[in-house]
Write a sequence for this structure.
């Protein structure tokens, strides 16, 4: 009997079942969705510029500044940036066609993230070059996905 009493007290203290309902969140307006998407995309694009410069200098086997460590760091940074971008997109409550488009983009980005993780830990520039040959078409696909998503939420094509 004391065990039953303790369980009862714990359920009551922890807020067991109640009849109160939580308010339904108000959907975001189209302008709010556009603003959140634009913020995520702007952050990604701004940071990607510097990462791309480092990748071009450090990851190209023909570059005078090729450096495995710097290349790995840049690829890791690109992966982390993509993860941050994807998490920002996941936090936006897209609806309708936009929800399908963001799902496609996130799927493509997941494939990119996996390859970037492999490249960031690759033992040689030649291995990285092989992985980059797989990443490049996926980046083009993801860019198309992003353009389609922009259109689905009523934003003009990126400049």
């Amino acid at each position: 009997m004391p065990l039953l009493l303790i369980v009862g007290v714990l359920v009551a203290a922890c807020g067991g079942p109640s009849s109160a309902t939580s308010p339904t969140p108000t959907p975001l307006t189209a302008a709010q969705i556009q603003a959140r998407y634009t913020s995520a995309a702007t952050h990604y694009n701004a940071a990607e510029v510097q990462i791309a410069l480092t990748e071009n200098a450090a990851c190209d086997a023909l570059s005078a500044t090729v450096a495995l460590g710097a290349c790995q760091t840049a690829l890791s940074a690109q992966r982390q940036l993509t993860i941050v971008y994807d998490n920002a997109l996941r936090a936006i409550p897209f609806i309708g066609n936009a929800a399908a488009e963001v799902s496609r983009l996130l799927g493509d980005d997941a494939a990119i993230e996996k390859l970037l993780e492999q490249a960031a830990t690759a033992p040689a520039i030649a291995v990285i070059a092989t992985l980059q040959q797989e990443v490049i078409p996926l980046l083009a696909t993801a860019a198309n996905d992003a353009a389609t998503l922009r259109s689905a939420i009523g934003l003009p094509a990126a400049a």
